[in-house]
Write a structure and sequence with these properties.
With 235 residues, this protein is an alpha/beta fold. The protein has one domain: NAD(P)-binding Rossmann-like Domain (Rossmann fold), CATH 3.40.50. The protein is 44% helix and 14% strand. The chain has seven helices and seven strands. A seven-stranded parallel sheet has the order 3-2-1-4-5-6-7, sandwiched between helices. It is globular and about 45 Å long. About 3% of the residues have low confidence.
C-alpha cells in the first residue's frame, strides 16, 4: 500500500501508534505536532515525515495542505487525531482560557483541517477523513463537561461533513474511543482515573487501519472502542 496518510497529533499516543501502523504497511505518512523535539523523535521511531503545525492555527493548516499537495499531489487519509483535556475540572472552576483552549483544540482544529483539505478530496473524488471524538460525547462524568461539549461537536460535525462529501465518493468516519493508555491525563493535570486503562494506543491504531482498509465502497459512520476494563452501566 502506497497511500498518503496525514495524522495530526502524531508525536505521541494514538497518533504515533497509528503512524507506525501505516508506515509499516508501506504508506507515506505525515505527522504533525507542536513540539518539534517530540515530533522529530516520533518521526524517527515511526518512519513518518514530520511537519510542525498547530491544529488551532488556520495558517498552519494552509501551510500543511500546500506541503502535502506539492510533495505528494494527493491525500488518501486525513486523521484528525490532535486533541486533549487541557483542564479536567468542574465548569465553575474553569477559566475562560481553559474553556477556549479546550474547544479550539478539540473541535475547531478538526473543523479547520477538514475545511482546508476538503477541496483536495473533492478534486480527487476519493479519500477518507477520520475524526477522533471520545466516549465523553456519549456519557457524562463530573469535570469533563466542556471537553465533552467539544467532542459532541466533533461527532455532530462529522455527520454533517459526511452528508456534504459522501456524494463525491469520500468516506467520513467518527471514531469514539474510551479511556486509553496515553499521556492524556498527565497533560490535563488529571489524576482521577486511577489504574492504567486496558485500551492501548496500538488497539486504536489497529481499529483505524482496519476501518481504512475496508473496500472503498464500504463506509463506517461511527465506531466506539472501549477497553474491556472500562464499563459504564447503563450504556
Amino acid at each position: 500500500m502506497n497511500d498518503i496518510i496525514l495524522i495530526t497529533g502524531g508525536s505521541s499516543g494514538y497518533g504515533k501508534a497509528t503512524a507506525k501502523k501505516f508506515a509499516d504497511a508501506g504508506c507515506r505518512v505525515i505527522i504533525t505536532g507542536r513540539n518539534e523535539a517530540a515530533l522529530a523523535s516520533a518521526a524517527n521511531e515511526t518512519g513518518a515525515v514530520p511537519f510542525r503545525a498547530d491544529v488551532t492555527s488556520p495558517e498552519d493548516w494552509a501551510a500543511l495542505r500546500k506541503f502535502t499537495a506539492e510533495k505528494y499531489g494527493r491525500i488518501d487519509l486525513l486523521l484528525n487525531n490532535a486533541g486533549g483535556g487541557v483542564a479536567i475540572k468542574d465548569t465553575a472552576d474553569l477559566s475562560v482560557s481553559d474553556i477556549d483552549r479546550t474547544v479550539m483544540l478539540n473541535l475547531n482544529g478538526t473543523i479547520y483541517g477538514c475545511r482546508e483539505f476538503a477541496p483536495m478530496f473533492l478534486s480527487q473524488k476519493s479519500g477518507t477523513i477520520m475524526n477522533i471524538s471520545s466516549v465523553c460525547a456519549k456519557q457524562a462524568w463530573p469535570g469533563w463537561s466542556v471537553y465533552a461539549a467539544a467532542k459532541w461537536g466533533v461527532l455532530g460535525f462529522t455527520k454533517g461533513l459526511t452528508a456534504e462529501l459522501a456524494p463525491n465518493g469520500i468516506r467520513v468516519t467518527c471514531l469514539v474511543p474510551g479511556a486509553g493508555d496515553t499521556a492524556f491525563d498527565a497533560n490535563a493535570n488529571f489524576a482521577g482515573r486511577g489504574s492504567v486503562p486496558g485500551l492501548k494506543a496500538e488497539h486504536i491504531a489497529d481499529t483505524i487501519y482496519n476501518i481504512y482498509t475496508l473496500p472503498k465502497n464500504v463506509w463506517i459512520e461511527e465506531a466506539t472502542v472501549w477497553g474491556i476494563d472500562q464499563v459504564v452501566i447503563p450504556l
